[in-house]
Design brief:
The complex is a heterodimer of chains A (about 260) and B (about 290). Chain A has about 260 residues and is mainly beta. Chain A is about 5% helix and about 50% strand. Chain A has one helix at about 10-20, and strands at about 20-30, 45, 50, 60-70, 75-90, 95-100, 105-110, 110-115, 120-130, 135-140, 150-155, 165, 180-185, 190-205, 210-215, 225-230, 235-240, 245-255. Chain A has a 6-stranded antiparallel barrel with strand order 2-12-9-14-5-17. Chain A is globular, with a radius of gyration of 18 Å. The mean pLDDT of chain A is about 90. With about 290 residues, chain B is mostly beta strands. Chain B has one helix at about 5-15, and strands at about 20-25, 45-50, 70-80, 85-100, 105, 105-110, 115-120, 125, 130-140, 145-150, 160, 165, 170-175, 185, 195-200, 205, 210-225, 235-240, 255, 260-270, 280-285. Chain B is globular. Classes of the chains: A mainly beta (about 260), B mainly beta (about 290). The interface between A and B is large, with 61 and 55 residues.
């Protein structure tokens, strides 16, 4: 853990010395499939073009994404932007599972922590076909390192591409987080791909009005400032609507030394 | 004592996977009958988890993972509506049902025994003070019912915030002969009382031809958001850690016996019965051990 977050002056010094990163991203998502009581309760979608943290210069140990601004043209929705880890992939044709990565180890408040995702989503990265109200069983390692627990989601038929379902209401009793996914299986279907992502939240915002923007200042909001490594993925999820929309996302990061 | 004693502990616990960060979309029942002076003046809406835009006949509360042990403490919430209002996060405990179609003692208490309790100021099993809310579950017809918090024989109707039993003297008249489904009002307490720990009796002194209600005790938390009715409308963020210092445990309090039926909801206290508009947001909590 570096010195950037020790004080406001340290933050200013980091900005001047190393140069901040300003990122502007545009993305679009089409219509998606609604959630129901067996698939996350709140309709969600993943914008399909995430951002990759670039390489860090000499003397820089991490990027600190402190402020973000999201503009979404969809009234009465909420957005979570976070560091995303692909935990597992299920290819429906053949019911074939491929493990992804485990949630990363991050230094938080000076302590090295094996993270577990308290935000996790199942996303149709390719639309499903031939899947009539399928049940997807996700076997995972929980926040305590216990293996073999499972979550079962029964979705509407044939979720469209980029539909995202919240997993946490369906975790095994007593669980709140996922460290890793060890298996996925589906009850039926002929095509499509489902992926489970774990998210470490950077910002949460709401959008009110037909063209709404929200700013989240992480410094003054009780959200963890995660140290970002080169090639970390930042993804955006929006909730509360199934109507296609656009995203303009601005990220501002300081360098940690 | 739990595992959280510093702000740093909060972020570490969340990073380790102990907590819930969840989006929500709340909706209310749409246009209802506004409260009038004789029915408490304040209309209440219990906002439930929305599936689409329809208020679900089978109520769906905000969802949490099941079987959590230890307090689940609020960290941060952000939310907004396109109508100016304040929405509080709260738990509605079902206290019983009320038949409005005949006069007499028509309250049927829920099987769970009240009060519900939690640890307050270090004292375990402290009775929780609840806001008494009546929600119409069958619209009334022909006659506006009148109710009073007592038994017809003159015995007590509720236990107040001090733990004393109270014989109600103040009546409530429903605001319309046809009071709409899902209209909700605050029950009339005696002057000087602010909450109930338990409701034991409700006397119907004037009945309707049709009508029924459910009685909830609502525990309101500090986490909330306020929407400004401006153009464009804006949402707000509530910080329970740095600025609020009010990290409520949003797991339900425990009934004296039995298991209370509970709903984690948004509570809107408005002066009128405006058509419901959805409320969107994200809440963040940390699971203490």
């Amino acid at each position: 853990m570096g010195t950037t977050l020790r004080s406001t002056d340290d933050m200013l010094n980091a900005s001047v010395t190393y140069g901040p990163e300003n990122v502007l991203l545009f993305d679009t998502v089409g219509n998606t499939t609604a959630a129901n009581t067996t698939s996350g309760y709140v309709s969600g979608r993943r914008f399909p073009t995430p951002y990759t943290v670039p390489s860090l210069g000499a003397g820089v140990t991490a990027g600190l994404y402190c402020t973000a601004r999201a503009i979404i043209r969809q009234n009465e929705t909420s957005t979570i932007v976070g560091f995303e880890t692909l935990l597992g992939t299920l290819t429906v044709n053949g019911n074939s599972f491929a493990a992804g990565s485990s949630m990363p180890t991050k230094t938080v408040e000076g302590t090295s922590i094996t993270t577990a995702a308290i935000c996790s989503f199942m996303v149709a990265t390719t639309a499903l076909g031939g899947a009539t109200t399928p049940t997807v069983t996700i076997t995972y390692t929980d926040q305590d390192g216990n293996t073999g627990n499972s979550a079962a989601l029964t979705t509407p038929s044939n979720p469209t591409v980029n539909t995202a379902y919240t997993i946490s209401p369906h975790l095994a009793s007593g669980d709140t987080g996922i460290r890793a996914v060890t298996n996925m299986s589906i009850s039926g279907g002929t095509s499509g791909v489902l992926k489970v992502y774990g998210l470490l939240p950077i910002i949460v915002v709401t959008h009110i009005g037909s063209q709404s923007e929200s700013q989240n200042d992480v410094i003054s909001t009780p959200i963890t400032i995660w140290p970002a490594a080169a090639n970390d993925i930042i993804a955006t999820y929006n909730f509360g609507s199934t109507t296609g929309t656009d995203l303009a996302l601005m990220l501002y990061a300081l360098a940690d030394n | 004592m739990g595992s959280i004693s510093t702000r740093s502990d909060i972020f570490k616990r969340q990073a380790q996977g102990y907590g819930v960060v969840s989006p929500f979309l709340l909706t209310g029942p749409g246009a209802t009958t506004a409260a009038a002076a004789a029915s408490g003046s304040i209309s209440v809406k219990l906002l439930m988890n929305s599936l689409g835009t329809t208020y679900q006949g089978t109520l769906i509360p905000l969802q949490l993972p099941a079987g959590l042990t230890g307090p689940l403490r609020t960290v941060h919430s952000i939310g907004g509506c396109t109508s100016g209002r304040t929405v509080y996060l709260g738990i509605a405990y079902k206290m019983g049902t009320l038949d409005l179609t005949a006069t007499g003692d028509k309250f049927t208490a829920d099987s769970a025994t009240f009060p519900v309790t939690r640890t307050v100021f270090g004292a375990a099993t402290t009775a929780v003070n609840l806001l008494p809310v009546l929600v119409v579950t069958t619209a009334t017809t022909v006659t506006a019912p009148v109710i009073i918090l007592k038994k017809s024989d003159g015995s007590a109707g509720y236990t107040n915030q001090a733990g004393s039993t109270v014989v109600g003297t103040r009546s409530m008249t429903f605001p319309a002969n046809a009071t709409a489904l899902s209209s909700a009002f605050l029950l009339p307490l005696e002057f000087g009382d602010s909450a109930v720990q338990k409701i034991t009796n409700i006397q119907v002194t004037t009945a309707a031809t049709a009508g029924a209600a459910t009685i909830y005790g609502v525990e309101m938390f500090s986490a909330a958001f306020t929407s400004v009715n401006s153009s464009p409308a804006e949402g707000t963020a509530i910080d329970s850690v740095f600025s609020g210092l009010a990290m409520d445990d949003i797991k339900p309090a425990v009934a004296t016996s039995g298991t209370a039926t509970t709903y984690l909801v948004g509570v809107s206290l408005n002066a009128n019965s405006e058509s419901n508009l959805p409320c969107t947001g994200v809440f963040s909590t940390v699971l203490d051990s």
